[in-house]
Design goal:
Elements: H1 2-19, E1 37-40, E2 48-50, E3 54-61, E4 70-78, E5 84-92, E6 96-102, E7 109-118, E8 125-134, H2 139-144, E9 155-161, E10 170-175, E11 189-193, E12 198-200, E13 204-205, E14 214-218, E15 227-231, E16 247-254, E17 259-269, E18 271-277, E19 286-291, E20 301-305, E21 311-314, E22 327-330, E23 339-345, E24 353-358, E25 371-376, E26 380-388, E27 397-404, E28 410-417, E29 423-425, H3 427-430, E30 435-436, E31 446-449, E32 458-461, E33 469-472, E34 477-479
């Protein structure tokens, strides 16, 4: 009987071993690393300031990248409205994202909200916010941001700016004329940039009986579209029997990119030059204009903007400067307020020529007592003034574009300062080839910017037909 029981016990053990289910070891779930990222630009030094219509931001994730990737959500808003200007969602496997946000057309405060989320774990998310304050570009700033374009020939003046807000700069032009024959008033010509070429654009305009010797682009009424203020002097040089016509100043108010409405400021003069910028620090674009004809009480004018494109005249020490045909508003001393840089001729023999810098008192006042000047050669005509800190010593060098009186030549001269009080000519230190045998390459506008995006600053004529460019190598300009 014991043997039988033992045998059954053996059978039972074998039977149990055959039917036993193996135990699966538990899967160890490794949690994702909490998402961390940096945002460039950031608000380390307060709200980010810009005068551009677009904002380039870079997101760099420093934490370990989830296997399934990330979702980047970016939203741009104006702080005075709950509506989104732009919202972008991007799902990628990369730990870095660079994107250009468009829509900062109006002077305002904006917020950019950036959220980075694991694609597989929605709770693994991080958010940062960037505050952006958009200011308005002065006429000089807009000139310096001009692109290299094949400007249609035959112009008397032109300006490059994005009038239809498609992100590509267009051209507004006034054609040349013969002062000895009646002017036909063809009005302005508009050229739309297609991205590959400029094509004639038939925009609506309510008055073609206008002309401009210099165009000041800017969003003067802060509606998000760039307007154009016209300096209307018509040059009678070369005609012995022609008088200099006196013409009102005009504003071309942009009508949503579809056309322009012409408004007159009803101040007549021979308006060859002027400039625009926020001279009083209230956030809008003011205008300074100069007439070379001071008969019958005509004077230069400082126009203060109320923020909506309405101007009132402010008296100033510069009202009666006798002969100024070049002017720009440039922040020469880096205090955040634009200073006034002009050429200034004495009104008595030997008619000495100066460059004069009127320092802004941070309230929009320019006085003769608060100015710096230096003499330039009297045997040259003034064409343009530029300023840029090429050698990065904290002081802007002044570059003058000059035409020779005696021949058809032209040249660039560089003046350097170490204290914003004394300026010394150092052209030979900056150029080995700053003199040209003709005036043509320097006619119209030179610009300082990195036109070829190689990290080196260029000095070039924005009319690409002129084929004139130098590149700054950190020590000297090299002709290209």
């Amino acid at each position: 009987m014991k043997r039988v029981i033992f045998a059954l016990g053996i059978v039972f053990v074998f039977a149990c071993s055959k039917t036993e289910v193996p135990v699966t070891p538990p899967v160890v779930v490794v949690p994702e690393e909490a998402i961390k990222f940096t945002l460039t630009p950031d608000n380390t030094n307060g709200a980010f300031l810009t005068s551009n219509d677009t904002l380039s931001i870079t997101v760099n994730v420093s934490s370990k990248l989830p296997a399934s990737g990330l979702i980047y959500s970016i939203e741009l808003k104006r702080l005075d409205t709950p509506l989104s200007i732009i919202k972008i969602d991007s799902s990628i496997l990369q730990s870095s994202l660079k994107i250009n946000l468009t829509g900062l057309y109006v002077k305002a405060s904006y917020s950019v909200s950036v959220t980075v989320t694991s694609k597989s774990t929605s709770t693994n998310s991080s958010i940062q916010t960037l505050q952006v304050n958009k200011s308005l570009k002065s006429s000089y700033d807009m000139l310096m941001s001009s692109q290299w374009l094949m400007i249609p020939s035959g112009y008397a003046s032109y300006s490059i700016f994005d009038y239809n807000r498609d992100g590509i700069p267009d051209v507004l032009e006034f054609q040349g004329y013969d002062i000895s024959v009646p002017y036909s008033w063809p009005g302005p010509f508009f050229y739309k940039n297609t991205g590959t070429s400029l094509v004639a654009d038939n925009l609506s305009i309510n008055n073609k009986h206008i002309f401009s010797s210099k165009i000041l682009p800017g969003d003067f009424n802060n509606d998000g579209y760039v307007d154009a203020f016209l300096l209307t002097g018509m040059d009678a040089a070369g005609c012995n029997n022609c008088g200099t016509p006196l013409i009102p100043l005009y504003m071309l108010a942009n009508q949503g990119g579809a056309g322009f409405k012409v408004d007159s400021l009803n101040y007549v003069g021979a308006w060859y030059t002027g400039c625009s910028g926020d001279i009083d620090g209230d956030g809008d674009l003011d205008i300074i204009t100069f007439t070379i004809d001071h008969r019958n009480g005509l004077t230069n004018r400082v126009f203060i903007n109320n923020g909506k494109g309405n101007f009132t005249v402010k008296t100033s020490d510069i009202d009666n400067l006798p002969f100024t045909d070049i002017s720009e508003l440039i922040d020469m001393n880096n205090d955040g307020y634009p200073d006034l840089v002009i050429n200034d001729n004495t009104n008595t023999p030997p008619y000495t020529k100066y460059v004069r810098i009127f320092w802004n008192d941070k309230q929009g006042n320019f006085t003769l007592a608060n100015a710096t000047s230096f003499v330039i050669p009297s045997n040259m005509f003034f064409n343009q003034v530029l300023a840029y800190d090429f050698d990065k010593d904290g002081y802007k060098e002044i570059i003058l574009s000059l035409f020779h009186n005696a021949d058809n030549g032209s040249e660039l001269q560089v003046f350097k300062t170490k204290d914003n009080k004394t300026f010394t000519e150092v052209s030979s230190q900056f150029f080995s080839d700053n003199q040209l045998s003709t005036v043509v390459p320097l006619q119209n506008y030179l610009v300082v910017s990195d036109v070829d995006n190689n990290g080196l600053i260029d000095l070039f004529n924005i009319d690409k037909r002129k084929n004139l460019r130098w590149e700054w190598n950190g020590t000297v300009f090299i002709k290209k």
